[in-house]
Amino acid sequence: MTSGFTCPACGFDDLEAPPYSPTGGPSDEICYCCGFQFGFTDTNSGYTFESWRQRWIDDGMRWDWGRTDDDRPDGWDPAEQLKNLDR
């Protein structure tokens, strides 16, 4: 994986911006991997990172539904990616 900003829901480490600003404002970015949108999925839909992560895991840790498998990074391994959350 690369060394962009990390999604706190799934561990994908190639977000274009930090999920939240230092003052707490959401980036509104959608994680390419799990589909979490910072400032919407949490604020408007009521998901926590943990509940969204569990939903994503229960759904088979699929690459975001709005994209094709061809959009996944080479060698993408969702189980390894989750380890980014432990850093």
List strands and helices in order, with pairings.
Layout: H1 49-58, H2 78-82
Describe this structure in words.
The protein has one domain. Helix content is 17%, strand content 0%. It is globular, with a radius of gyration of 12 Å. The protein has two helices and no strands. It is mainly alpha-helical.
Tell me the span between the first and last alpha carbons: 14 Å
C-alpha Rg (nearest Å): 12 Å
Number of helices: 2
Series of secondary-structure elements, N-terminal to C-terminal: HH
Kindly give the count of domains: 1
Structural class: mainly alpha
Q: Unreliable segments (pLDDT under 50, ≥5 consecutive)?
A: none
What fraction of the residues are assigned to beta strands by DSSP?
A: under 5%
Task: State the helicity in percent bands.
Answer: 10-25%
**Largest sheet, described in full?**
none
Report the count of strand segments: 0
User: What is the mean predicted local confidence, pLDDT?
Assistant: 89
Q: Shape, please?
A: globular
Describe the structure in brief.
It contains 2 helices and no strands. It has one domain.
